[in-house]
From TrEMBL:
Organism: Lactobacillus paragasseri
Highest taxon in the source lineage: Bacteria
InterPro entries: DNA-bd_dom_put_sf, WH-like_DNA-bd_sf
This protein's name: Terminase small subunit
Length: 101
């Protein structure tokens, strides 16, 4: 097994970097757990999909609020809707094959 030996300055830098990374993760997790109201583009960025995918999801029934001409989305409602529409092996139907004999 290898060992890494750090002097005081390197150790301080390493610990500082760990603390910054940890704080970023905590902030990111808090932000993800808070309800945000986003427009179509913002929701697409939130889910890492294209705005066209958001349009498709709206057509499939994703909830939104219409404010003037703009649709607004609650991240909590959108996440709930996405989880309700997850396809797993358990709820996925096998394709039917028609065989001519």
């Amino acid at each position: 097994m290898s060992k890494v030996i750090l002097d005081k300055n390197d150790m301080a830098s390493f610990l500082s970097e760990c603390k910054q990374t940890f704080n970023k993760l905590i902030t990111s997790t808090k932000r993800e757990n808070q309800d945000q109201i986003l427009n179509r583009k913002g929701l697409a960025e939130y889910f890492h999909v294209s705005p066209n995918s958001i349009d498709d999801w709206v057509n499939l029934g994703m909830p939104y609020v219409q404010l003037g001409k703009t649709k607004r989305f609650s991240t909590k409602s959108a996440l709930k809707w996405v989880h309700e529409h997850e396809v797993t092996n358990q709820n996925k139907k096998s394709p039917i094959r028609i065989v001519n004999e």
